[in-house]
Amino acid sequence: MKRTCCAAACVAVLGVGLLCCTPAASAADGPYRQLKEISIGGEGGWEIAPAPGVHGIAVAPDLGRGFVSNGRESTVSIVDLTTLQIVGTVKTGENPDAILYEPSQREVYAFNHTGHSVTVFDAGTGEVRATIALPGVAEFAVLDPKAARVFVNVEDRSEIAAIDTKTHAVVATWPLAPGEQPTGLAFDPEGRRLFAACVNQRLVMVDAATSRVLASLPIGPGADGAAFDPGTGLAFASSSDGTLTVARSEGRDKLSVVQTLSTPKRSRTMTLDPTTHRLYVAAAEFGAPTTGPDGRPQRPPVVPGSFRVVVYEMVGPASR
């Protein structure tokens, strides 16, 4: 996710969030409402030094290690979770983006966005075990441990690629129509369904066993994040227009919107805590747009000190 440098920061502050409350929660017309904001601050871009171009973090609790993908230098940093010190570096393909940990084989998968590949390495030693070619641009990925599969969005081809975790090979690619340019991806482990948030303003639900597109519904423009809560059966898609779509499946092949949350503009990176059912959305204020030396538009700068995480909670008991 080339625009989700805040993904790592959003995950990193989950533990901090409970300590930094703002006053009372506000009401919302639906199962979710805003609870509080966690002020993070900082200058400029959202980085974890020294991790240039950080995109995401994977955590291996059984090894006490974290893994940070560094897009600008095409590496992954290995971090000791006790000391928070970098203890190793792994060379990857070009611009690693999404990253996940596969615990059964203790392997890390780094999805190389512009490298059109996946670097798989040993989580303990950092030794690269495989480089898996993809048919296009790698976006977000999820793990299906029961089926020994990793699913990854192939953005420019509007497809999902399925990788066998035993053989380190792409075993299938599936079209996502009517979805185009998938970014965020989430997985329902019980129903074995995938939820792909697509740039053409669609959330697409796919059967992970048969590859069949089951349903889709409209979401906001600039989609990036996706999540699924096994405890409530709710799926989520966050978009840069200042909306976060909350959806629920009705039966096997129907999907409906139950709420459209209002979020800060350009806040399209989120994560879910499945224990508390809370949503965490990375946000900041931005300056005026600029142009580069070549005359092309540049991303507007982040206003110093404005980075924060907005927390949303469920109203009433959670149920599926």
Please summarize the sheet with the most strands. 4 strands, antiparallel
State the helical fraction.
under 10%
Write down the Rg: 19 Å
Mass-distribution shape: globular
The ordered H/E elements are HHEEEEEEEEEEEEEEEEEEEEEEEEEE
Q: Give average pLDDT, whole number.
A: 88
According to DSSP, the number of beta strands is: 26
Q: Which regions are unreliable across 5 or more consecutive residues at pLDDT < 50?
A: 1-27
Q: Main sheet: which strands, in order across? A: 1-26-23-22
How big a fraction of the residues is strand?
A: over 45%
Helix/strand class:
mainly beta
Distance between the termini: 30 Å
Number of helices: 2
Describe it for me?
With 320 residues, the chain is mostly beta strands. Helices cover 3% and strands 49% of the residues. It has helices at 6-12, 14-17, and strands at residues 32-39, 54-60, 65-70, 75-80, 86-91, 96-102, 107-112, 117-122, 128-133, 138-144, 149-154, 159-164, 169-175, 182-188, 193-198, 202-207, 213-218, 223-229, 234-239, 243-249, 255-262, 270-273, 278-283, 290-291, 297-298, 308-314. The strands form seven sheets. It has a four-stranded antiparallel β-sheet with strand order 1-26-23-22.
Task: Break the fold down into its secondary structure elements and pairings.
Layout: H1 6-12, H2 14-17, E1 32-39, E2 54-60, E3 65-70, E4 75-80, E5 86-91, E6 96-102, E7 107-112, E8 117-122, E9 128-133, E10 138-144, E11 149-154, E12 159-164, E13 169-175, E14 182-188, E15 193-198, E16 202-207, E17 213-218, E18 223-229, E19 234-239, E20 243-249, E21 255-262, E22 270-273, E23 278-283, E24 290-291, E25 297-298, E26 308-314
Antiparallel strand pairs: 1-26, 2-3, 3-4, 4-5, 6-7, 7-8, 8-9, 10-11, 11-12, 12-13, 14-15, 15-16, 16-17, 18-19, 19-20, 20-21, 22-23, 23-26, 24-25
